[in-house]
TrEMBL record:
It is a multi-pass membrane protein. The keyword Transmembrane helix applies. The chain crosses the membrane at residues 146-163, 304-325, 389-411. Residues 607-626 are annotated as: Disordered. PANTHER family: APG9 AUTOPHAGY 9, AUTOPHAGY-RELATED PROTEIN 9B. The lineage of its organism: Eukaryota, Metazoa, Chordata, Craniata, Vertebrata. The gene is ATG9B. InterPro entries: Autophagy-rel_prot_9. This is Autophagy-related protein 9.
Amino acid sequence: MDPPGLRIGPLIPEQDYERLEDCDPEGSQHSPLHGEEQQPLLHVPEGLRGSWHHIQNLDSFFTKIYSYHQRNGFACILLEDVFQLGQFVFIVTFTTFLLRCVDYNILFANQPNNRTRPGLLHSKVTLSDAILPSAQCAQRIRSSPLLVFLLILAAAFWLFQLLRSVCNLFSYWDIQVFYREALHIPPEELSSVPWAEVQSRLLALQRSGGLCVQPRPLTELDVHHRILRYTNYQVALANKGLLPARCALPWGGSAAFLSRGLAFNVDLLLFRGPFSLFRGGWELPDAYKRSDQRGALAARWRRTVLLLAAVNLALSPLVLAWQVLHAFYSHVELLRREPGALGARRWSRLARLQLRHFNELPHELCARLARAYRPAAAFLRAAAPPAPLLALLARQLVFFAGALFAALLVLTVYDEDVLAVEHVLTAMTVLGVTATVARSFIPEEQCQGRSPQLLLQAALAHMHYLPEEPGPAGRVSAYRQMARLLQYRAVSLLEELLSPLLTPMFLLFWFRPRALEIVDFFHHFTVDVAGVGDICSFALMDVKRHGHPQWLSAGQTEASLSQRAEDGKTELSLMRFSLVHPQWRPPGHSSKFLGHLRGRVQQDAASWGATSVRSPPTPGVLSDSSSPLPEAFLANLLVHPLLPPRDLSPTAPCPAAATASLLASISRIAQDPSCVSPGGTGGQKLAQLPELASAEMSLHAIYLHQVPWLLQPQEIRRGGVEGHAKPSLEAPHGLWAQGCFSWAGLGG
C-alpha cells in the first residue's frame, strides 16, 4: 500500500499530452516544429562566425553557460577536474599501498626489525623500516588476482573519466570564448558579474543578432526550461509523491530515502540512460504520448528497472568499498578535529527536492536554504520532544567520560611517556568523542524559552513551505518532517554508506511496482512547447492547468484533484519567478492570478490601516545604510511586534492583514528604487533590487500560508477539497488557525 504522502492518485486521462503552439502572453500562433527541426539552431552574428558554428543542442549549450558561470570560469573547471582525477588515483594507489606494501609486524613492533642493531633493544622503528621494497611490493600485488582485477577496473574507469573531462574541457573552452567575444565578459571579471546579468546579456544578444531561430523571442523562462528540463520533472515527481522512495518502519510511520546513488539511478532510468525515457534529449518518444501504449511501456520499464537493480546488486561490493574508503579519508581528520561535526545538521537531498520551486536554479535554491538554516535548526532544538531521562543519562555520561579524560590528560602533562602506553591515546580519543556525542542529547538552555511557532514561522519566510499539520499532533508532525529535511550529518553519511545495498531494494520494491504510474505521469504532465521541446507541464507555472483553489487560485484554475500541484507549488513558483524576473510576462491566467493576489494584498493592507491601532513600519527604516538590505529589511519589519498584547482579541486584525501591509510597503519600494537608499549610488540601488525581491518573496510566502485558512470556505478548513483528505505537507496549517499573534522574533 502507498504511504499517506503519495499524492499521484488515479491518473485518469483528464489532461492528455498536447502541443502548445506558443506560451507567450500575446498568444501568437506558430506552427510547431517536429523531429530535428523542433530543436532551434544557434547561429552567431557575422563577427563571431570565425569561432562558432551552428549548435544543435541548446540544452547543453545553456547548461554549460550556466555551469561555466557557477564554477567560476575555465581555470577553476580545469583544476577541479584535475583534482578529482588525482583524488581517485590517490585513493586507489594509497589503499593498495596500505594493503600490500606495509609490513605491519614491524610497524606494530610485533617482531624485531632486521635493520635494528643487536643490543639496542629500545631503538625506534621508522616508517622506512615498515615499508617493503618496491620489488617485494609489486610481487605481493601480482600474487593477488582479485586485487589485479580491481586495479584494471579502476584504471578503465579513470580513463573513461579522463576522456569525458577532456571533451568537456574543449566545450568549456568554447564557452569561455563565447563569454569573452559575444557576452563581453572576460575571465577576470566573471566573479563580479551575477548570473542575472549574464542571462540579460544572453537575451539581449538574441534580440540584437538573432541568437536562436525561434518562432518567438527568447525569454528568461525558455532559458530556465532548457537548463532545468529534467530537474523540473524531478520536482514534480516529488510533489506528486513518486519521489523519494519510502519504506514502512516496524514501529510505525515511514522513512524517506534518496541517496546520491539512488538519485543517479533514477536519472539513468528517466532521463539520461540508454534505455531511459528521454535518453538525454529534449523530446519524449511518441509511444509515451499515446495512451494505448501505456501497458506495454510499463512492462518494458519494469524489465529495465529489474536489469538496473541486478547491475546495482552485482556492483554493490565495489561501490560499498569505494564509499567506505572515501568516507574514511574524508571524515576521520574532521572527527579528530571536531568530534561533534557529525551531530551538526544540514539540508538533505529530500529537502532540496521538496522545497525547490519550479524553474529555480541551483544557486538560487542554495541561497534560500542558507537563509532558512538558522531558524529551522533553532526550531528543531526548541521543538524537540522532551526526554528528561535521556538528558539525565547524557549528563552523567559526559561527567564520567570527562573525568577519565581529564585524569589521562594530567598524566600526559606530567610525563609524556604515558602516551607510549598501549591504547592510551585511543582511550583519550574515544572518551572525547563519547562526551561530545552525549552532550548533543542535553537540551540547550537558550532554546527553552523561544517559541517554536515563531521559529517555524521565521523558517517559513525562506523555506516557503511549512511542514505542519492541523490538530493536536501538528507540533510533533512538524518536528518530524523538519528533521527529515534538516537531518544530522551522521544520518546523511550513513545513508550514503548503505546506499549500495539499499538502492537495488528500492528499485525493485518501490519504483518497479509503480511503473504504470510513472508512465502515466510523463504522459499526462508533458507538453510540447514550440521552440523548446517536451517539458514538464508544471514548469509552465500555469494556475489554470495546475493551480490549487486553496492558494487564491479559485476562479483562475480548472485543475482536477490529480492535476493540482500540492503545497501551493504552482502559485509560489509563479510568484518567485515573476519577482526575480520582473521583465518576464506570464501567460493570461497566471497574469490574472498575480493581479488578483496583488489586489487582495492591497485590500488587506487597507483593512489593516483602517482597523489597526498601530501603523506598520514605513519604508524609512530602510534608509539606514549601515546594514545589508535584506537582513535589515526583514529584521526591521518583522522582529518588532506589530500586534501589541492589548490587540490580541477576536476583533483585532489578523496576521494576513499585517503581512499585506508590509507587502504593500515593500512593493512600493521595489517600484521606486530611489527610496531604497537615498544616499546610495545608482549601482548600489540596482544591486539591492534582487535582495528586495527575496524579501518580498518571503512575505508573499507567509501571506499565502495565512490567507487560505482565514479566508477560504469552511469545507476547506476542515482539511479537504471535494471530499479528499488533505496531504501531510499541504497548507494551510494549524499554526494560522490560532488567531492573531505577535510577530516578535520572526526575523530569526
